[in-house]
Amino acid sequence: MLKIKRLISLFLSFLLLVTVCGCKKNAVNSDNSSFIEEVIVYEEEESSTETVTSDNQASNDNVSSEPEESKPESSKVTESEDNSSKYDDVNIDRTIPGQNALAITMYHFNLSKATNYDGTGFTRFDEIEDIFYNGYCNNIIIGVDSLKQQKFTDMLIKYNVSFWISAWSYYDSQYTTIEKYVDKFSYLDQIRDNKQLWDLFLGFHYDENIWRGQSNADFLTMTKAFYEKYGKRNFPVFATGEFTGYEGNQNQIDMDAANMKKINPAALKYVTDVAFDSYSVDVRDGYSNGTYIDKLNKTYPNITDGKSYYSEYTKILLALFDHDVNVWYFPCAYTTSLWSGGKADESYCVAHLKYLTNLLKQQKYQGGICLYTYLSGNKERGLSQNLVVKAKKTNEQILFPQYGKWKIYSTVFKDITTEFRKTQAPHATFNFKAL
Q1: Which of 278, 165, 310 is nearest to 230 (CA)?
Q2: In what order do the strands lie in the sheet with 366-371?
């Protein structure tokens, strides 16, 4: 009997052992299954996010970082909806078409001038978009080849940003025909059918052409050819010496005006927008401009300080035209040397921006503001180093985080951009074929 009980006990122990082992095995399998499932789910979510990001880079259709199925039904874009619904992650005013608003941009701000995003895991496209996304600029000056980048052109439409095409390499009749020169910009013909993009195309921008060696005759021929082919605007910025005879350079202020390369008023027939660049004159009350203003006052008695310098030079420039033009201003936005002997800083540049914006509003026909400069050479710091720019993807300062930022300037810049987006620009009207 004892043997039977012992056998029964051994048998029950064996059954218990088998049961326990089986449970442990199932538990392990269950844990592994859960782990594998979690990995699969994570990978699917990561893949979905990457897909959305890729789609964002290629088109405007999905601008949220969320998977499409996680969006509220009302936010999904359909073909029949207004295009603005595609851009619900962009907090900008779209009441006024970009081409009709007062404009604000930065010089040396474009794809070829993008700065240190390369090598950071971000791209030049990210850098340009981060500027727009942060509320800076509703205008940009670009090379014609940038229009071949769909990521970039989608971005212009998305942020309602108008643009000028830079004709930096100007026409010279000694080396080519006007037909061959204009043909360098023939890619513009391929965007005519894209109404949104074509409407944002303002025209052609030129930089100190006469100063750099172009003849007045070639400048007239070039601007005429562009206007007749594309029906768009022509926007030169002149060095002060091109219309006053004074270079505006500390070493050249006393040069004889007769020796300077000056614009001939007859060459301005097809110009629609105009500006002059001069960055070293302080407009703050009580600040010195060295002997510069005193020297100019001998020729221009109405120039008595920094503010009157800019207002009088505007009148001198506009007097060359026999038709209405849109006025632009180029405020200093980098740490250049000043006539006072110091260097431009945030306070100086804020005062420049505010004063020239107010001066712009006093003009009958207004184009906009072009801040000089985003990318700066030598040891001077431009806006690329000084602006507060939070990356859209990370909400971190990726753009030159090692530099202290101009927080007041950044706020003023954003506020002006917001105001300009809502402001119908009083543009001059043009019909040059009737002239």
Answers
A1: 165
A2: 103-106, 366-371, 326-329, 273-277, 233-239, 201-207, 162-166, 139-142
pLDDT per residue as tens digits for the range 138-181: 999 999 999 999 999 999 999 999 999 999 899 999 999 999 99
pLDDT digits (tens, 9 = 90+) for 257-306: 555 688 999 999 999 999 999 999 999 999 999 989 998 898 899 999 99
What's the confidence (pLDDT) of residue 31?
Answer: 33
Q: What's the mean pLDDT in 327-349?
A: 96
CA distance 270 to 325: 10
Distances (CA, A) of 134 to 29, 126, 160, 330, 390: 50, 12, 14, 21, 7
62 DSSP assignment: -
Amino acid at 247: E
What are the start-end ranges of the H helices in 89-170? 124-133, 150-158
User: What values do phi and psi take at 300, rounded to 5?
Assistant: -125, 90
Q: How would you label 193-218 residue by residue, b for 16+ Cβ within 10 Å and e otherwise?
A: eeebbeebbbbbbbbbbbbeebbbeb
Instruction: Return d(Cα 312, Cα 323) in angstroms, integer.
Output: 19
The candidate with the shortest Cα–Cα distance to 145, out of 193, 114, 112, is 112
Q: Is the peptide bond before 429 cis (omega within 30 degrees of 0)?
A: no
Residue 374 · residue 384 · CB < 8 Å: yes
Kindly indicate the confidence band of residue 215, based on its pLDDT and cuts at 50, 70 and 90. very high
Give the model's pLDDT for residue 188: 98
E strands present in 167-282: 201-207, 233-239, 273-277
Choice between 48 and 186, residue whose per-residue pLDDT is larger: 186
When the pLDDT of each residue in the chain is averaged and rounded to a whole number, the result is 81
The amino acid at 32: N
Does the predicted model carry a pTM greater than 0.85?
Answer: no
Q: Which run of H or E residues covers position 106?
A: strand 103-106
Task: Encode pLDDT of 5-30 as tens digits.
Answer: 454 455 555 444 444 444 433 433 33
**Residue 37 exposed, middle or buried by CB count within 10 Å (0-12, 13-18, 19+):** exposed
